[in-house]
Amino acid sequence: QRKLFEYFLVVSLQKSKGGTQYMPEVTQQFPPKVSSRYLSSFTVLSTHPLSILLICYGHGGLELITADICEMFSFVLTGEDGSRRFGYCRRLLPSGKGKRLPEVYCIVSHLGCFNLFSKVLDEVERRRALSPALVQPFMRAIMEAQFPAPGRTITVKTFLPGSGTEVSELCRPSDSRLEHVNFECLFSCLSLRLLLRVFSSLLLERRVIFTADKLSTLSQCCHAMVALLYPFVWQHTYIPVLPSAMLDIVCTPTPFMVGLLSSSLPQLTELPLEELDDEDSILPPKLQSALENVLERRRDTVVSEAFVRFFVELVGHYPLFITGEREDGYSSSSSSPVPCSFQREGFRKAIPSKSVRRFLEVFMETQMFGWFIEERELHRQALRGTEVWQQAQVQIQVMDSLVQNSFSFLRTV
């Protein structure tokens, strides 16, 4: 049975054996027994088996503080098989007086539902303030609850001393793609021109580093940039909050997108990094100009749609060049589906604009474009009427409907 989350951790700071510094340790977890092998199979990188603890505290904050803090941030874990899990963290100062050590609550799930798990962490915080022992029954009730379908709500009943039986409702949104995305945070940190330069670099799968003073700002900006790539998916290393102990990752030659706290900048400047200055010439000029005009009068929904329409103009004609089957998904001589293939050269040359063709020539070599086409080739091969086929139609419905109803404000080439 699928579960709403896989494990929950409370990570606190404990003095090292030498007593000279604090180190992060798991002080509470659910399920009570989580194998170290399981934890290490879902890490940021296989070379960093303690990545979850490092993400919770490796960015700094390893000291006694008095000012109240409460930061929500998230990260992505990559499994040995390439699968991804989402981590939702809340860093806060426990109740009390004087100098105290911050602690982090962390939930790991395969579901990308930021608001849902933020509500769960609200309850965790409330219950731990009364007694840490009250957290275990609550997390057990959530794990044992029926896995919700998109758009459905589950009810969780737990007993709380002094209050009796309490009922919590957790709703899984129908579409959680944008629920945790804060485009305003991104636009407040980056000018429109700089944002499009970063967007261009990500499209060509380059190495991109974000820096900010706060964990929440890093997390929000990175997630917003990833959301702008839809319907494409970033296929490479993605660490919205990179611990300083893992800073050597930025020296790898492979593409990555990471976020660093500003406190790590002195260390970053000592590393051999390559800086490029050609981002202004990557996107087709007319499409970029049209995109800028739309974004200047932005709202969150307009921002998301504008970038989707941008991709529709670039690749919206792709269904015409996936060939090898009849319209009903079967070959003409049998009831079995036949392999599909993508006609790359015909797809690129079908665009009349030279600047768009030049861009596509490079973009078509990226892993995100390859994955996008491969998924649709497999969907076309799936037997019509089967569960696989039905799931495929749901996944590509948004993109294909936009192809048929493309907005005119981006038709500039």
TrEMBL record:
Domain (UDENN) ranges: 6-383
Domain of life, per lineage: Eukaryota
GO biological process: retrograde transport, endosome to Golgi
Record-linked InterPro entries: cDENN_dom (IPR001194), dDENN_dom (IPR005112), DENN_C (IPR043153), DENN_domain_containing_2 (IPR051942), Tripartite_DENN (IPR037516), uDENN_dom (IPR005113)
One GO MF term: guanyl-nucleotide exchange factor activity
Pfam assignment, any one: dDENN
Keywords, in A-Z order: Guanine-nucleotide releasing factor
GO cellular component: actin cytoskeleton; cytosol
PANTHER family to which the protein is assigned, alphabetical: DENN DOMAIN-CONTAINING PROTEIN 2 (PTHR15288), DENN DOMAIN-CONTAINING PROTEIN 2A (PTHR15288:SF3)
Annotated protein name in UniProt: UDENN domain-containing protein
Annotated source species: Echeneis naucrates (Live sharksucker)
